[in-house]
Amino acid sequence: KSGNEIFSSTTELEKLFKHESEVVKKLEEYALAMETNLLVIKRYIDDFNMIRKEGPTESSEVVANPVNAFHILKRTTVDWEDVLNSIKNHTKTDGLVDEVVRKGAYLPTFEDFIGGSMALVGLQDTYKLNLSDIIQGSIGEGSNTRRSPYELTARDCLFLGKAAFNKGLYDRAVGWLETALSRADEEALISSAPATASKEEILPFLETTRRVHDEVLEKRGPSGDTWQTFPTPLNPSLAKKKKYQKVSTYKPRIFDPLSEAEELENFKTLCREEELRNPELDAPLRCRLRRRPGTKSFLGPFKVEEKSLEPYIILIHDFMLESEINAYKSISSSRLRRSLHQGKGGGYVATDVRTSKQAWLTMDDDPAVDEFTKRIGELTGLEMFPENEASEVYQVANYGMAGRYNPHTDYITGQDHLSEPFEQLRGNRIATFMAYLENVHAGGSTVFPLTGVRVKPQKGAGVFWWNLRSDGSGDPLTRHGGCPVLYGEKWITNKWIRYNAQFQKVLCVPKGSEFIQEI
Ligand SMILES: O=C(O)CCC(=O)C(=O)O
Ligand SMILES: [Fe+2]
Q: Which domains does the chain have, with CATH numbers?
């Protein structure tokens, strides 16, 4: 199994957790048989069992909490290494040992643990989560708080500080490392055993991080596409510099060209459910029941809620049947592979810009697929067939631990790609239809950072928008992304509709309007 695979979907994490249960069962047998040299293994088991005693009984509930997920990954990578060693060191090997080792061969890689750590760091950053809450195992706020029986140790915080540093989140790295220090103090205070990480070990990292933080801020400014710092230096004498006396922090603007860093700031602001649109913008938006003349879908009329008129973005309530949702999820489950996205060099890469797993679904997979596609055609009046030409086959995505998709366009921008014969034939992605196959407990909204539109996932609902303007060019205002899943799991399916098949279908637009209007 290649690295970076397990943390990126809840389905895989759940499998891991279940597999881990089997592994632990074996381990328990082994521990019972061997009465010496078991300290390390015992600790592993105790850590695992904590969730059984204090956590939820459903494994999907267990992995829905990112702190739990972090622990499962840490345990099955780092801690597992120690367990293996202590078993191997044991002079007596018998069948039980072989079995434990064999079962352990299917555990995740260290890259998985790093991916999971990056995910937790990103979650804390986006939602501005309180570090003192997270280290107690609490995620979320008020009555929505979910607790994990696990706390984060000084060593965990040190590791997460390093992950934040590697992600370029220098401000967050300082936070995690300072928390590691105070945690080390606490641990020394409440137990006679040494802290999980000593101050001597943490301090050099904190000092380096503070220095690099200031260097980056001095040379490159407070934020960019790959880094982030506080607005002013941490070193007090540097902070006295004139240029830091009146720093203007970015105030989110919409309908304006933005730098990548500013767009990401809008994205995070929307994810936290802060408003960027003013009431005048929303005043003309309506909810209505829509049935296209001449269509007869038994589910209609459709419940259409306008989210934005220019560009046109609508939410359609109760659009997908429970039976269809189940078919989509069960067929995709066994096919899920790590999602890729177009990288800077043009090729497709797996990075933390997009952390999910995906599968493709066609009409041949199930009658539900054809039914659902026809319904999208009835709603939008667009040509959906032939499949793969007028509209692409379905992409189903399952987001894992803190899974997210940073702002991007659905229309294709790469000229090389667009000039391929098949792409020439079908044209660019004129519209997106995306449906939610699951409710998300917290986080995971779909947001449009340049228009301030936010759509909260709602099982069975669909979102539709035009990606192209009336002249066929891409509309950058449609840039959008999926917010990190704060708690729970997220499933979506995408249907991308192509331009060329629609030449007789899309209404002519009023002269002078660059937007395609309502469907
Ligand atoms: O997850 C979301 O809400 C957005 C997904 C998306 O934009 C995509 O898959 O292209
Ligand atoms: Fe998208």
A: 10-220 (1.25.40.10), 279-502 (2.60.120.620)
Answer yes or no: are the C-beta atoms of 150 and 158 closer than 8 Å. no
This model of the complex carries an ipTM of 0.99
Calculated CA dihedral for residues 458, 454, 122, 485, nearest 10 degrees: 0
- Determine whether the shortest distance from the Cβ of 68 to ligand 1 is under 6 A: no
Single-letter amino acid, residue 389: E
Q: 308 forms bridges with which residues in the sheet?
A: 313
DSSP annotation of 364 reads: G
For residues 262 and 123, give the distance between their C-alpha atoms in angstroms, rounded to a whole number: 18
Ligand 1 close to Cβ of residue 398 (< 6 A): no
Beta strands 446-448 and 453-455 are antiparallel
Structure confidence by residue, pLDDT tens digits, 389-448: 999 999 999 998 789 999 999 999 988 888 999 999 999 999 999 999 999 999 999 999
Ligand 1 proximity of 429 Cβ (cutoff 6 Å): no
Answer for the pair 381, 292: CB distance below 8 angstroms, yes or no: yes
Mutation probe of ligand 1 site: the residue of 342, 492, 493 with most atoms within 8 A of C-beta: 492
Residue 438 in contact with ligand 1 by CB distance below 6 A: no
